[in-house]
């Protein structure tokens, strides 16, 4: 909880300044890449004396030689009253060209280091680096909680687009950002002299004139003993100052030598602090390690993305957290609602329940689950709990189970309502754990545990009806999902199917609307608002992606339903209100792995969409069960065409109501166990779409196949290779 608070507020406050560091850091990280291209190779055992000899030959006025971390040798000279800096080739001392420290204007570096404000700016930059370090550490802790520990860290990321972007880039980059911030802090500490890098005083040394001319470099002991490769900086003695000395700086230390007698006058080894500084500089700038500079560049460039997606996440969570009206004090309430939510959507359901119970005359207190306490006045307790990671609670409710365990049961009756997603191996795992723990401790159930899939308003309404029965009074639940912006879709064409059991179906193709419609792919959901029911959308799996240029769904007529009869009544040219709801758990990644698609009835729609979009001819195998090939073989003609075009490698159909039709789709899976096993061994992905009973039977068959391989369906899910979309 505390980490979430710190991460959120620090991100919001320090984020804007971090943005400046991120953008300038991205630009600065390009320098090491340019330098790496310019560096000429150095022989590994070239004596420093030889290098100096070569350089003196080509740059007679040389005063200082610098060996940059990138490998470039730069010679600073003063010739004809003009200071110059040139790059030289260590192989022969030849001048390669003028040296320019950076192509960027100097103010970019100053902006990065000081926000263009000297010391106050330097202090601000150091504070922002500290904030970034805390943000990285808190981000990592939140990530670990969210993904269910280190093991889950590499797992598939789900959630809204900003959440996925934030988490995906976060898990790659958080360590680099932490390192960049820590190294920046170390360098700032040395700038403010909180760390002493080397002794303040230099040794009192001077050359002793012998009456002879100065010795050539190859007679200077220090230059002979050092390798050019280890050089950081060399100052040559000034010709008109007989007391001046040679001065050499390397990573190991610095030394002074007499220009007339050649002997070493003093040697000071580098301090530990200096060596650490050198490392910090390398890790922070990437100078001398171009591959690292690439990572630095990418991680700095990701800061604006973090900032923006973090801001969106904060805004979304804020918007979805209701402002509860008339929250009774805890001790006076007869009904308590406890909420465990990460993304905020569960709060919307809690608000609906809160309002309904209030309308029924109850005294209601609604709060977060970590505040669990049930005073004696409470008669009914409701826990609305979402699940994250591998069946884990949302971050703020980590200690809820412990807290619940610490209080003995009262006379209150408790109902647990789980919120989750069936795509995850542990569907509503946290709600299950809560239910189990409460019952074990002797809390009385108000009603059995219910689990809501993908925030379904319909399932919530069903739970509300069950609650009405238990309370003996209608519970006026008015849940209003926050609906995205609607687009008006015009029907282009329809393909009607009579259906096998008096249940006709239709494939509806709509034109892409003029208003912007969110990006979508086959497998995402189209939310439709039937007229007269403006708050509860119905969702249909999309059989097309945006690139197809139309929006296509397959709808079976449900008698007594609201939305499907409405959709069936549409004529060409009619319009309907709709929006896209991403279904990230049911996408296909862009790899070349084979794909086994298994579907029945109208569940074939998203699978047909995957096949339609398979222009790269990835091996796809479809197992498709319907009842009658003449009455409900949806996409039948298209599937055959796609097979001819190479989009679909194999089509296996079963028609359950036809003699010799092959039974159900699971029978086809069973018959083809050998082939499916081979595909799974090759890393195949599996996507299943259709009814729950069908999926159950298919899963049994898949589990048997996987068991022969020493694996399980849970293993396939954990590896992101199995996903289902069921209704
Ligand atoms: C990263 C992530 C992990 C999730 N893990 C699970 C899980 O293990 N089991 C499950 O049933 N649902 C899981 N879900 C689905 C959420 O529990 C579900 O969307 C819930 O309605 C979110 O409620 P909230 O917005 O109040 O946090 C996960 C969702 C995300 C984004």
UniProtKB/TrEMBL annotation:
Signal peptide residues are none
Question: What are the residue boundaries of the FAD-binding FR-type domain, all occurrences included?
Answer: 484-589
Pfam families named in the record: FAD_binding_6, Flavodoxin_1, NAD_binding_1, PepSY_TM
Q: Which InterPro entries match?
A: Cbr1-like_FAD-bd_dom, FAD-bd_FR_type, Flavodoxin/NO_synth, OxRdtase_FAD/NAD-bd, PepSY-ass_TM
Q: Which residues cross the membrane?
A: 123-144, 165-189, 289-315
Coiled-coil region: none
In this chain the Flavodoxin-like domain maps to 335-468
List UniProt keywords, sorted A-Z: Flavoprotein, FMN, Membrane, Transmembrane, Transmembrane helix
Report the domain of life of the source organism.
Answer: Bacteria
Q: Which CDD domains does the record associate with it?
A: SiR_like2
Which PANTHER family has this protein been placed in? NITRIC OXIDE SYNTHASE-RELATED
What's the protein name? Oxidoreductase
Protein source organism: Alcaligenes ammonioxydans
């Amino acid at each position: 909880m505390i980490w979430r608070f710190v991460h959120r507020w620090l991100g919001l406050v320090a984020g804007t300044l971090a943005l400046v560091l991120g953008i300038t850091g991205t630009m600065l990280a390009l320098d090491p890449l340019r330098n790496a291209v310019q560096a000429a190779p150095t022989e590994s055992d070239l004596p420093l004396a030889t290098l100096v000899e070569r350089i003196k030959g080509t740059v007679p006025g040389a005063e200082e030689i610098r060996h940059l971390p990138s490998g470039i040798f730069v010679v600073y000279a003063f010739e004809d009253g003009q200071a110059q800096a040139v790059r030289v080739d260590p192989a022969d001392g030849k001048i390669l060209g003028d040296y320019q420290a950076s192509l960027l204007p100097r103010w970019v570096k100053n902006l990065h280091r000081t926000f263009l404000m000297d010391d106050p700016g330097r202090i601000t930059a150091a504070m922002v680096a500290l904030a970034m370090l805390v943000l990285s550490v808190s981000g990592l802790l939140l990530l670990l909680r969210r993904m269910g520990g280190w093991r889950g860290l590499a797992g598939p990321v789900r959630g809204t687009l900003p959440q996925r972007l934030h988490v995906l880039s976060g898990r790659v980059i958080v360590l680099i950002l932490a390192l960049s911030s820590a190294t920046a802090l170390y360098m700032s500490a040395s700038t403010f002299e909180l760390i002493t890098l080397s002794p303040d005083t230099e040794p009192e040394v001077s050359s002793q004139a012998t009456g002879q001319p100065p010795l050539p470099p190859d007679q200077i002991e220090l230059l002979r003993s050092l390798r050019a490769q280890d050089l950081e900086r060399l100052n040559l003695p000034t010709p008109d100052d007989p007391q001046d000395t040679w001065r050499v700086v390397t990573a190991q230390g610095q030394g002074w030598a007499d220009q007339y007698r050649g002997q070493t006058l003093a040697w000071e080894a580098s301090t530990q602090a200096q060596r650490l500084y050198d490392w910090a500089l390398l890790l922070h700038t990437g100078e001398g390690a171009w591959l690292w500079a690439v990572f630095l560049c990418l991680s700095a460039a990701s800061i604006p993305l973090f900032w923006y997606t973090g801001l969106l996440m904060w805004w979304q969570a804020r918007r979805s957290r209701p402002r509860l009206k008339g929250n009774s004090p805890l001790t006076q309430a007869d009904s308590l609602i406890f909420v465990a939510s990460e993304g905020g959507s569960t709060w919307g359901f809690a608000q609906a329940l809160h309002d309904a119970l209030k309308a029924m005359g109850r005294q209601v207190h609604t709060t977060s689950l970590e505040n669990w306490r049930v005073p004696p006045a409470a008669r009914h307790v409701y826990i609305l709990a979402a699940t994250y990671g591998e069946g884990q609670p949302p971050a703020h409710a980590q200690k809820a189970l412990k807290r619940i365990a610490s209080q003995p049961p009262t006379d209150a009756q408790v109902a647990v309502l789980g919120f989750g997603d069936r795509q995850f191996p542990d569907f509503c795992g946290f709600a299950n754990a809560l239910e189990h723990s409460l019952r074990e401790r002797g809390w009385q159930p108000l009603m059995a545990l219910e689990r809501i899939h993908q925030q379904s308003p319909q399932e919530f309404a069903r739970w509300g009806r069950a609650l009405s029965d238990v309370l003996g009074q209608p519970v006026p639940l008015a849940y209003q999902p926050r609906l995205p912006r609607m687009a008006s879709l015009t029907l282009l064409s329809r393909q009607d199917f009579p259906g096998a059991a008096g249940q006709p179906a239709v494939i509806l193709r709509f034109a892409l609307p003029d208003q912007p419609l969110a990006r979508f792919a086959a497998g995402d959901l189209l939310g439709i608002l039937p007229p007269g029911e403006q708050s509860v959308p119905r969702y249909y799996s999309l059989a097309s992606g945006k690139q197809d240029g139309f929006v296509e769904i397959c709808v079976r007529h449900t008698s007594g339903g609201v939305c499907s009869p409405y959709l069936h009544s549409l004529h060409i040219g009619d319009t309907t209100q709709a929006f896209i709801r991403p279904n990230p758990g049911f996408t296909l990644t862009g790899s070349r792995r084979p794909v086994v698609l298994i579907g029945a009835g109208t569940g074939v729609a998203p699978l047909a969409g995957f096949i339609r979009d398979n222009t790269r001819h990835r091996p796809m195998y479809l197992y498709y069960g319907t009842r009658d090939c003449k009455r409900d073989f949806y996409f039948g003609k298209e599937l055959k065409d796609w097979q001819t075009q190479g989009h679909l490698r194999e089509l296996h159909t079963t028609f359950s109501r036809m003699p010799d039709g092959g039974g159900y789709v699971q029978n086809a899976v069973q018959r083809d166990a050998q082939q499916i096993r081979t595909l799974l061994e090759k890393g195949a992905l599996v996507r299943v779409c259709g009814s729950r009973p069908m999926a159950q039977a298919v899963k049994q068959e898949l589990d048997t196949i996987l068991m022969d391989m020493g694996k399980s369906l849970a293993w396939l899910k954990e590896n992101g290779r199995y996903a289902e979309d069921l209704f």
